[in-house]
Amino acid sequence: MSRLLSILSAIIFVTAPAYCLGEEGIEVYSNTEYQFRFTYPAGWTIEQTDYEETVIEIKSPDRKLTFNVGAVRDIALKKVKPEDFIKRFSKDRVTEMYEKEFVDFKLLEARQTTLCSQPAYYWICTFTSFDSEKKQVTMKSMTITANRSEIQYSLTAAGVSGYFDKNRSVLESIIDSFTTGATLWK
User: Fold this and answer.
1) Where residue 4 falls among pLDDT bands split at 50, 70, 90?
2) Proportion of the chain above pLDDT 70, given as a percent
3) Can you tell me the distance from the alpha carbon of 171 to that of 80, in angstroms, rounded to the nearest whole number?
4) Which helix (H) or strand (E) holds 9?
5) Which residues have CB under 8 Å from 29's CB, separation 6+?
6) Number of helices and strands in the chain (H, E)
7) What would the mean pLDDT of 126-140 be, rounded to a whole number?
8) d(CA 186, CA 184)
């Protein structure tokens, strides 16, 4: 009996539930400078980042998942129609941008979509990175980028590949909750 309990305990530990965005477990992040907001699971923490274009980064309690919002204000973007902005992206262009930056970069999916009712470009990729113990791990990342007025937004969710897959729906929920525009604060 104790052997059975040990096995069941191990199974429960290994198959811990994925994160969820329940009504009672939602936090809201708002940024007035770049005019956006999104919801995320309670218990996730806001982290400081050294990346110049990253406005906010949040991490899951176990630090295995991250979500960040990058924003770049460029007055020249005001003249670019959103549908023309996304023409800058393609499978070849994304691969060209990232295969030099990431080891073993592989583009899994890339397509046009929308973000906040604006034309956007979306891609999922894998690449090799190192965890906190300096062990090599395969990471999976999902990015969506769009232009609204003079601001380019890039939302990126990432995690260790299998863990990312298990929690993909919550990462997509965070992206789906993302809203922009000055009307949010009127």
Assistant:
1) very low
2) 84
3) 29
4) helix 2-14
5) 37, 38, 39, 40, 46, 56, 58
6) 5, 10
7) 88
8) 6
Report strand pairing: 36-41 vs 45-47: unpaired
Distance, CA of 1 to CA of 157 (rounded, Å): 42
Q: What is the pTM of this model?
A: 0.81
Q: Are strands 118-130 and 45-47 parallel, antiparallel or unpaired?
A: unpaired
β-bridge partners, 159: 65, 140
Whether 184 shows a pLDDT value over 60: the answer reads no
CB 29 within 8 A of CB 46: yes
Instruction: Tell me: pLDDT of 83 over 80.
Output: no
Residue owning tokens 């979509």: 113
* Domains, the chain, with CATH or none: 2-185 (3.40.1000.10)
- Which residue pairs from 142-146 have beta carbons closer than 8 angstroms and sit at least 24 positions apart in sequence? 142/168, 142/171, 142/172, 142/175, 144/113, 144/115, 144/120, 144/175, 145/89, 145/115, 145/120, 145/121, 146/82, 146/85, 146/86, 146/114, 146/115, 146/116, 146/118, 146/119, 146/120, 146/121
| DSSP helix/strand/coil, 169 | helix
Q: Name the residue with higher pLDDT: 6 or 87.
A: 87
- Rounded to an integer, what distance in angstroms lies between the CA atom of residue 40 and that of residue 23? 11
